[in-house]
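Dear support,

I submitted the protein below through the web form. The confirmation email said the job was done, but the results page showed an empty box. After a refresh the structure appeared. I'm attaching both so you can tell me whether what I see now is the final result or a partial one.
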Amino acid sequence: MQDVGFVGLGAMGTAISKNLLQAGFRLQVFNRTREKAEQLAREPGVTVGSRPSELAVKGRMIVSMLADDKALEQVVTGPGGLSEGAAGIVHISMSTVSPDTARRMAQIHTNRGDRFVSAPVFGRPEAAAARKLWICESGEPDAKAEVRHILEAMGQGIFDFGEDPGAANVVKLAGNFLIASAIEAMAEAFTLGEKNGLDRGKMAEMFAATLFACPIYLNYGRLVAEQGYDKVGFSLPLGLKDMQLLQATAVTSRVPMPFAAIVRDRLVAAMAKGREGLDWTGFALSVSEDAGLATDKLTN
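What the results page shows now:
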């Protein structure tokens, strides 16, 4: 069995790490909240490290699934970070971060004799648990080849976007933008139906079975139709973070993205209304409110 390091045991990280265990890997894990790491350590083949640097053993592959750029930077360069451990590791970063952050982390690893592969994913925690993630990868060809078997144990498909370590994160941000735009469009369409006496769920069912027969319109469509925004798979603050990263990347690339501004503002409004505890689809509540529909029972 191969030893793998794993940093970040939120809902996604825990689901992914359990699949690695089922695939026969041994794990040494680190999580900022040690209790989560100790819970996973009840599984055979898991040990707990007290800091990321303990996981950095020469030749070891280390997976990280973290909330944001700051958390990734802290794990790599902060006190007790990977950079303080042994050189020669392969870091698989599955976090949704700025492309520039991914490039900077890759350079830091290269300078100390490590390798770095960006591998952000599409899929909510239930998809991660079922090994149904879609994985985007970018980085050095040899490093990607070396980590392929690990990624294959996590998802249903891997898409390669070249050697630029930031490229996979561009794709991830673009994909989240498409999802957010679909959420807004579905919320507007279903609210139009509701105001005209139609059942939101029946509309969602028809569209997902015909014109828009794809996972986003099926799964997110059901959430938006039922307005089940308390079923948190991806939190509203993280959705806002991703749209801000998208807009920053768009500005740097000189690409106007007016729809991104609309969705970002929806997320900001939701935060201002105290809805940070909802799933990121919860920004669609503003569509109902704008249409004069009561939403109190949906948020209490």
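Response: this is the final, complete result; the empty box was a page-load delay. Strands lie at 3-7, 26-30, 46-48, 61-64, 90-93, 115-118, 121-122, 133-139, 155-160.
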